[in-house]
Design goal:
3 helices; 2 domains; 2,3-Dihydroxybiphenyl 1,2-Dioxygenase, domain 1; alpha+beta
Length: about 140
């Protein structure tokens, strides 16, 4: 049996604002933007080369959804963006205005730095020292 996480929903303030950030600042690909009614869209973005897990950008509507924008993990790192070249991506993100909360550091598991997206969600940019064989293929 094979299973995978196909998408993770992330609350956003505005679809177009979020699409612009993820595609221009992080270099993600816009895979789908389909209207689902007068105020709802099915918006999927993913990092280049990503084969399975994608982000579903979900525009917050209800007060409790709006309150959770940027804090979906209670202030902890929420998402982990693996890369095959940390320094390439770190430099590109920095040049495009991505805000890093710390300087890059070497850990036993790899090179990592925490950044925040436009809403304040915390991410790890991470190059693993020993990635699983299929992860970076």
């Amino acid at each position: 049996m094979k299973q995978c996480i196909g998408a993770i929903s992330i609350l956003v303030r505005d679809y177009d604002e979020a699409i612009a950030y993820y595609t221009t600042k992080l270099g993600f690909c816009l895979l789908e933007d389909t209207p689902r009614g007068p105020l709802k869209r099915w918006v999927i973005v993913a990092p280049p080369g990503s084969a399975e897990c994608r982000l579903l950008l979900a525009q917050a509507v209800k007060p409790e959804e709006i309150a959770a924008i940027g804090n979906q993990a209670g202030g902890r790192v929420f998402l982990f963006l693996h890369t095959d070249d940390f320094w390439r991506d770190y430099r590109a993100f920095t040049a495009r205005g991505v805000r890093f909360a710390e300087s890059p550091r070497e850990e036993t598991y790899g090179t990592v730095a925490v950044f925040s997206d436009l809403y304040g969600n915390r991410w790890d940019l991470l190059q693993l020292k020993n990635p699983p064989a299929a992860a970076m293929a």
